[in-house]
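My current task is to audit a protein record that another person submitted. My question to you is simply how this chain folds and whether the tokens agree. This is what I was given:
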Amino acid sequence: MSAPKDLYAGLVTEQTVNPATLTGNGDYTEGSVVDGLNAAAVLHALLVGESGDTWSGALKTDMILQHGDESDGSDMAAVTDAADYIGTMETEASGIVKALDAEADDNARYEIVYCGSKRYSRLYLDRTGNHSSGTPMAALAIKAPRLTGDIAPVA
């Protein structure tokens, strides 16, 4: 079996935020905790549809990457160290991967890879303002396996 096929065979996908139109006034949504045991990294992706509200600095959703040691998520904290993720964070000091605060943020996919030392990670969606009509969103995580043995180019 070739190395690329082995890699693909080991990928595990989990839905962490069920597809829904997220509404609420100053509300939040915690994605499911993803167990990174035996994973080299976990890619977290947020899928965003067309907002029913007009995004602004006062009406926004912050996509935050969190990590922790407890499977129940009770000790989750924002990822703030560049060594713990691969990708771009808008506000590293608070773990904000993306602030959804403008119309251009609609109908898009946002991704960040967690590669830190904690076993568990998740996305946390923090809403500011009254999202009366809401925005359709869903999130998933893809766990990449730790590769062992010799990996050679496919001939």
User: Anything to note?
Assistant: Residues 37 and 122 are 14 Å apart (CA to CA). Helices lie at 3-10. The domain at 3-145 is CATH 2.60.120 (Jelly Rolls). The chain has one helix and eleven strands.
